[in-house]
Amino acid sequence: MILVTGATGNVGRRALELLVEQGHKVRALTRDPQRAQLPEGVDVVAGDLADPATLDAALDGAEAVFLFAVPGSGPGFVAAAEAAGVRRVVLLSSGAVEDADLASGPIAAYHADIEQALRGSSLEWTFLRPDVFAANSLMWAGQTQGGDVVRGAYAGATGAPIHEADIAAVAAAVLTGDGHAQQVYRLTGPESLTHADQARIMGDALGRPISYQELPAEVVREAMSAHVPGPILDGILHAWSSSVDRPAPVTGEVERITGRPARSYRDWVLDHAAAF
Ligand SMILES: NC(=O)c1ccc[n+]([C@@H]2O[C@H](COP(=O)([O-])OP(=O)(O)OC[C@H]3O[C@@H](n4cnc5c(N)ncnc54)[C@H](OP(=O)(O)O)[C@@H]3O)[C@@H](O)[C@H]2O)c1
After folding, report:
1. Cα(242) to centroid(ligand 1), Å
2. Which among 48, 55, 155, 193 has the fewest CB atoms less than 10 Å away?
3. Structural domains of the chain in order of their starting residue, each with its CATH number
4. Whole-structure pTM value
């Protein structure tokens, strides 16, 4: 049986659905089963990764775990997983861990701590380190629902946005296949795009003239500070500013591991058109 944590999130939900489609026996962990809305037939178990004492029922009989990175949860999870006899753990880590501009920041630090706990364990581990999620564009939905201009910082900030379905497909392949133990996979979308490129491609896909209007970073910091903690926000703004004029790295790992090319940003927009 495979335990999927983060099962109500962008990636975990897709990974869970794919594993069910493939016929694997799957269990989902969530802090709130009443609100989870997971597919029929999935065994949904309550638990909190921040409190390892709550994980026994979820880990009981699990051979493999897809692990969402809750800050500070590494050592407690590892002890609980080892005690339960789990063999394999696939961690949804972050490309920030190996990005020169982000590696010293808080996002990289808490993912690296969990990687460290797994490295020191007796478990088979695999770290998935994705680049920026295409799903980050959902932040723009409020603006595109009201017009054709997206306002934000650093029009020229780059990334190689990855579709959550591709991360999920890699996760499913690694959870169920051999040859991935003690491996680190840097996952990206198929091309480096700026914020302005993403707005233009979104417009093309939706048949609307969507453009990106750059605002001063301080204005954006103020607006985002209501939802994002200060140190994380600093890290994001720093990463955006230092990526301007520097194409983001693109890896072929999605295709190598799943046998299918990584989905384009345009594909992602079409899959989420209703949101915009
Ligand atoms: N956005 C990016 O560009 C990017 C890039 C690289 C890496 N990442 C990493 O990817 C992850 C985000 O993935 P996502 O977008 O799929 O997630 P998401 O949509 O933000 O969903 C969060 C998930 O985590 C679960 N969760 C949160 N705290 C929990 C806890 N204490 N115990 C158990 N479950 C908990 C939630 O489950 P319940 O609420 O149901 O309990 C939910 O399923 C983060 O670690 C992020 O750093 C993101």
Report:
1. 25
2. 48
3. 2-133+163-187+250-262 (3.40.50.720)
4. 0.97
